[in-house]
Structures are given as structure tokens and as C-alpha cells.
Design brief:
Length: about 170
């Protein structure tokens, strides 16, 4: 494995770990005693995603937007039979929204805590969809199983939270 491949892969798995741990906090209990730790891993996951994109553009695409678009289209065609690279822009939207979410949590924590539950649920549901695609749909081999485990754990956590919050 080359240096570029290693750096690109390790940063995306740090991203996924930061996402899974941070999302667990949002889903499970939102006990503010854990807020600082959750905010740190949530932030680390977001920063790791930014670093992952830098490594991917540097090592795989030679800083070419066209190359990244073509590769996204190739992968989408391979999985879905649709030659479309627009998923790249979805990734940009995820990065931007996650960075805004992190900034909101750090700069206005009281407002972040009081935001509507529907906003949190919608945001976390969207991220779960994105991470499921990134770790299960577009990945093969053992990493796919790890991605399924992360996503399944989050869904199970959500289900248990709903069951026990009704009692």
C-alpha cells in the first residue's frame, strides 16, 4: 500500500469513527455531561474528512476537479449503472454542512442544544444515509462489513432509544 493510499484510507476511517461516536451521542441520550467528549470526536471526524479530501485530491486526482468527477462517475456507474459524477457535489455539501454543524456547536452551544429535535433527526438520518453509501454500497471486502456494523449499531441504538423513551 502506497503512502497516499494509506493516508487517504486512514483519514476516512477516522472520519467514520468520529461520525459514529458523535452520532451515538446525538442518538443515545444527549446527556450534556458527555457533551465535551462528543463535540471533540464530532469535530475530529469532520476535520479528518477535510484531510481525507485533501489527500484524495493530492494523491489520486492531481488536484483536478475533473478527475474527481470522472472517478465519482465511474464508481457510480460500476455500482448503479449510472454514469454520473454528481455525488461529488453531494460530498461537498456534506462537508460544508458538517463544518457548519461543528462551528454551531462550538460557537453557540446553547442554541445547538436547543435546536429542534426534528432538525437533529433529519441531519443524523441524512448523514447515516451518506455514511452507509460510503462504507457499504461503494466499498468491498472486510471494510464493507465494518461499515455495516457501524451503521447497524447506530440504527439499533436509535431503536432502543425510541423504545425506552416511550416507557
Amino acid at each position: 500500500m502506497s503512502k497516499g493510499e494509506f493516508l487517504t484510507r486512514v483519514t476516512i476511517w477516522f472520519t467514520i469513527a468520529g461520525y459514529a461516536l458523535g452520532a451515538s451521542y446525538h442518538i443515545a441520550n444527549r446527556k450534556w455531561v458527555w457533551e465535551n467528549a462528543a463535540r471533540l470526536v464530532w469535530t475530529a471526524g469532520c476535520i479528518s474528512l477535510l484531510i481525507h479530501v485533501v489527500f484524495a485530491f493530492h494523491y489520486y486526482h492531481g488536484w483536478s476537479q475533473a478527475s474527481a468527477y470522472r472517478e465519482t462517475a465511474r464508481q457510480t456507474a460500476e455500482v448503479f449503472g449510472l454514469d454520473w459524477g454528481g455525488g461529488l457535489y453531494v460530498n461537498y455539501a456534506v462537508i460544508s454542512a458538517w463544518a457548519l454543524d461543528v462551528a454551531w456547536w462550538w460557537l453557540w452551544p446553547d442554541g445547538y442544544r436547543r435546536r429542534p429535535r426534528l432538525l437533529t433527526v433529519t441531519w443524523q438520518g441524512f448523514l447515516l444515509f451518506i455514511f452507509f453509501n460510503a462504507t457499504v454500497v461503494f466499498v468491498n471486502g472486510p471494510l464493507r462489513w465494518l461499515g455495516m456494523a457501524f451503521c447497524a449499531a447506530l440504527v439499533i441504538l436509535w431503536w432502543f432509544r425510541r423504545q425506552f423513551s416511550r416507557s
